[in-house]
Design brief:
- The complex is a heterodimer.
- Chain A folds into 2 domains: 2-195, 2-Layer Sandwich (Cytochrome Bc1 Complex, Chain A, domain 1), CATH 3.30.830.10; 218-398, Metalloenzyme, LuxS/M16 peptidase-like (Cytochrome Bc1 Complex, Chain A, domain 1, 2-Layer Sandwich), CATH 3.30.830.
- Helices cover 44% and strands 18% of the residues of chain A.
- Chain A has 15 helices and 10 strands.
- Chain A has helices spanning 34-41, 53-58, 83-95, 101-120, 127-135, 150-155, 158-168, 184-195, 245-256, 262-270, 302-318, 323-340, 344-357, 362-371, 375-385, and strands at 2-7, 13-20, 62-67, 72-79, 174-180, 218-223, 230-237, 274-281, 288-296, 391-397.
- The longest helix of chain A is centred in the N-terminal third of the chain and has 20 residues, at 101-120.
- Chain A starts with a strand and ends with a strand.
- Chain B is an alpha+beta fold.
- In chain B, helix 9 (270-282) packs across helix 15 (400-410).
- The chains are: A alpha+beta, B alpha+beta.
């Protein structure tokens, strides 16, 4: 198990972050939502701690977890004196999760209600299902982390969870970061004490699935009972550690970060084609997506809206950006990093995440990598990504 | 080998000190709270006005005025304003709540001197261009239409309208019509009457140089003086709490809200009620969460919150469940309430809630940004350090009987509104 320590003596707290290198891309394709359901089960008791949350609360701690396409990440935040409580609980559930039938049935029901609350019952709640399904044909990024539908979640059995847990929840498939008011030596000794006796296993290696290059534009239109029309354009782009990821990320900033961004200024404020517009990258480990998402002003058609975006994309592809615009997005990035760095929890999560990507030092060096992106590189990457043949267009048509 | 069979010993958090800060009066009358951290490279500067719903001449004018401050000044277009903010990687957010409207600058410390003049220009010389005003109302109407598709929002609108009254600033629901009735002149008037020196205070947290701090005082001097607004809270006769069921076709889940009017933080029972609310539904280990989610699996989440505004408050239990679970969920919620009214909570449950809350308090003042939020929240409610200390004393000394008394006083079924939308 990889262990990282981040000493910060300005806080009375410690934070523990445990990242498992398993996410919804490892779900079986007929039982999607498995990784996320297992995350719920991780709070239902291990052999020595029949309940995870109560001891944490007794230790004045807070804890939670999230699952995404690539990883499952658990964290605790508690007073420095009670660090051992978190290590006891995390190591115990890594060693021997109980996975009882009763808890399983309850959590399956909770997750089905989560699916209803966040997907079925929300306006636009199913757009990610539509968009990912359109953009990916073979890669498991084609389903959202929560699962394709209720039936999939219902089909997952306790045995599936047990197998998954045995294969993926092993010390050598995890990254532990301890941060806050602690010393490096003490932390490493404690990590060795609590996790050193856990048996490594050979984590299940699944073959890497490569999404074939898209060759023609894809298009889908969905009619929903929503009051405002929405347009999505999704473009395949490199994964999180690819050398051109940074330029692609900057392209999304140029297009959609802030109210002076090109799309907001031109298409919302000037031309009033959209009521709001945004551009962002999914930031997945395997090749991900650059997404442009806009709510249409009344009277605008999806075709006009899409054409207006393409005009801006063509402008970006045909002319290098000026240094002032590059300084702007660099400043936006540096500012976001500086604010994020004031949070202990963000710091330990980022350390774990960058170590998962291959190098914890990226926490410090990544801003420099962004700083080296040139206007020319941005133009080149824009030309390679922002192509119709690389685009999936999703129209949500409402009832207005 | 560690001993896994027993939990490691736990240290209790016995006292969370009130965060260190400095208080000033700038230009002789503007209260300023400053939390300096030299190790940060960023700063947050928040200027607050009593200009929320309580002080509106027409519905939703408070929100519209504040959100449109950035849309143009005497000398700058909306585009120039946006470019200056973005170029420095800064954010200017314009939050509004029932009582207050704020302008908040978040930026790298090294750019404060470039951005403060813009903040004050926005504050003192907004022109609310007609074109931007019209587009804003279209944006807001569209947001509202989407929000109305959400059962949880609908239930919140219904229950707060009942708790406070349809005409009360805390109770009224914004409507599409508000934006048709509103004119640019209403915004200009709202701004002129309320965004002045005698109606504002400042909270600074993070790293701000002394010279920037002095410039801030100079610029505050450019805000005109005015008259402290007087409040005329409308009191209307409130209906007796009842059950309201509103059908919403096509929804697979229903939103449930159960709640009542309470009071602000200055009330003698606020702290004890806060503790009771935490036990009932204020954290993951609470009664409602353990029962409705962790035992029965009826919902993804259930919680109860005790909101305190400047002049009032409300306690509301909220959850979303499959339509078929509505009846058993309601039954289980009332059973938990009855239990708190008739039985004494045991020591372990009490200790668990105490420990959780002390950890929550400790974390809430970790770092100058969070500390500033805590101090602001207390001060805006007319309390401060004493409250922060006494709620901890209350937490340590409260007995199971006190909690049962609170439940009997404030959780009588006849006093609770019940709203189901779905």
């Amino acid at each position: 198990m990889t262990v990282l320590v981040h000493e910060d003596r300005t806080t009375p707290m410690v934070a523990v972050n445990l990242l498992y290198k398993v996410g919804s891309k490892h779900d079986p394709c007929d039982k999607t939502g498995l990784a996320h359901l297992l995350e719920h089960m991780m709070f239902t008791g291990s052999s020595n701690a029949p309940d995870f949350d109560t001891p944490m609360q007794l230790a004045s701690g807070e804890n939670n977890a999230f699952t995404n396409k690539d990883i499952t990440n658990y964290y605790e935040l508690l007073p420095a004196e009670n660090l051992k409580t978190a290590l006891w609980l995390e190591s115990d559930r890594m060693q021997d999760l109980v996975l009882s039938k009763d808890a399983f049935l309850t959590q399956q029901s909770v997750v089905i209600e989560e699916f209803k609350e966040t997907c079925l019952n929300q306006p636009y709640g199913m757009v990610w299902h539509h968009l990912l399904d359109l953009a990916y044909q073979v890669h498991p990024y084609q389903w959202p982390t929560i699962g394709i539908n209720e039936q999939h979640i219902q089909k997952i059995g306790l045995e599936d969870l047990k197998n998954y847990y045995t294969h993926y929840y092993t010390p050598n498939n995890a990254i532990l970061t301890l941060g806050g008011n602690l010393s490096k030596d003490q932390s490493i000794a404690l990590a060795a004490e609590w996790f050193g006796d856990l048996d490594p296993m050979n984590p299940q290696t699944s073959e890497t699935i490569v999404e074939p290059n898209q060759r023609a534009m894809r298009f889908k239109e969905v009619h929903e009972d929503v009051p405002v029309d929405v347009l999505f354009l999704a473009f395949h782009m490199p994964g999180r550690i690819h050398s051109t990821y940074y330029a692609a990320d900057f392209i999304s900033d140029i297009l959609g970060n802030g109210k002076s961004s090109r799309l907001y200024q031109k298409l919302v404020l000037d031309r009033k084609i959209f009521l709001s517009i945004d551009a962002y990258v999914t930031g997945n480990t395997d090749p991900g997506l650059l997404i442009i998402e806009g709510k249409l002003a009344s009277g605008t058609t999806h075709e006009e809206a899409a054409n207006s975006i393409w005009e801006e994309l063509e402008r970006l592809k045909s002319k290098e950006i000026e240094s002032k615009e590059l300084s702007k997005i660099l400043n936006q990035m540096l500012s976001a990093v500086a604010f994020s760095n004031t949070s202990l929890l963000n710091n330990v999560m980022n350390l774990s995440f960058f170590e998962y990507l291959g190098d914890a030092n990226l926490v410090n060096s990544e801003p420099d990598v962004y700083g080296k992106v040139t206007p020319n590189e941005i133009q080149e990457v824009a030309n390679s990504i922002l192509q119709k043949a690389n685009c999936s267009q999703l129209n949500i048509k409402g009832n207005a | 080998m560690p001993n896994r069979s027993a939990p490691p010993p736990i240290a209790n958090v016995n006292r969370v000190p009130f965060p260190e800060h400095t208080e000033y009066f700038m230009v002789g009358k503007v209260p300023v709270v400053r939390l300096q951290s030299d190790s940060y490279s960023v700063v947050k500067i928040e200027i607050i006005f009593d200009a929320g719903r309580l002080y509106e001449s027409k519905r939703s004018v408070g929100k519209a005025t504040n959100l449109l401050l950035k849309s143009g000044t005497l000398s700058k277009t909306i585009k120039e304003i946006n470019e200056t903010i973005d170029y420095h990687g800064a954010t200017i957010s314009l939050p509004v709540n029932f009582d207050h409207s704020s302008i908040v600058l978040y930026c790298l410390s090294k750019y404060v001197s470039q951005l403060l003049p813009l903040v004050f220009e926005i504050l003192t010389q907004p022109v609310f261009p007609q074109k931007e005003f019209e587009f804003f109302t279209e944006q807001q109407k569209s947001k509202l239409k989407v929000a109305l598709q959400n059962v949880d929002n609908q239930a919140y609108r219904i229950i707060t309208e009942q708790i406070f009254g349809k005409g009360h600033p805390y109770g009224y629901n914004s409507s599409l019509e508000d934006y048709d009735l509103m004119t640019r002149d209403d915004l200009i008037r709202h701004h002129r009457q309320l965004y002045h020196l005698d109606n504002c205070r400042v909270f600074i947290s993070g790293n701000m140089s002394d010279s920037d701090f002095r410039s801030l005082e100079e610029m505050l001097g450019t805000i005109p003086s005015g008259k402290k607004p007087s409040l005329c809270p409308q009191h209307e006769p409130l209906a007796k709490p009842a059950k309201i069921k509103t059908p919403f076709d096509g929804k697979v889940q229903s939103a449930i809200k159960i709640g009542r009017k309470t009071f602000n933080r200055q009330h003698e029972h606020y702290q004890q009620l806060y503790i009771l609310n935490t036990l009932l539904g204020g954290y993951f280990g609470s009664r409602l969460s353990m029962n409705i989610r962790e035992k029965r699996g009826f919902t993804y989440g259930i919680h109860s919150s005790l909101d305190a505004m400047a002049h009032d408050g409300c306690l509301i239990i909220s959850t979303e469940v499959a339509n078929t679970y509505v009846e058993p969920t309601l039954k289980a919620i009332y059973e938990e309430i009855d239990d708190l009214k008739t039985k004494l909570v045991n020591d372990l449950e009490l200790q668990q809630m105490r420990s959780y809350l002390m950890g929550y308090f400790l974390n809430s003042v970790d770092g100058v940004f969070r500390s500033s939020t805590v101090i602001r929240g207390l001060k805006e409610n007319g309390v401060g350090k004493e409250f922060f200390n006494s709620i901890q004393d209350q937490l340590m000394s409260i007995s199971a009987k006190d909690i049962r008394n609170m439940a009997n006083q404030y959780l009588q079924k006849d006093d609770l509104w019940e709203v189901v939308v779905g």
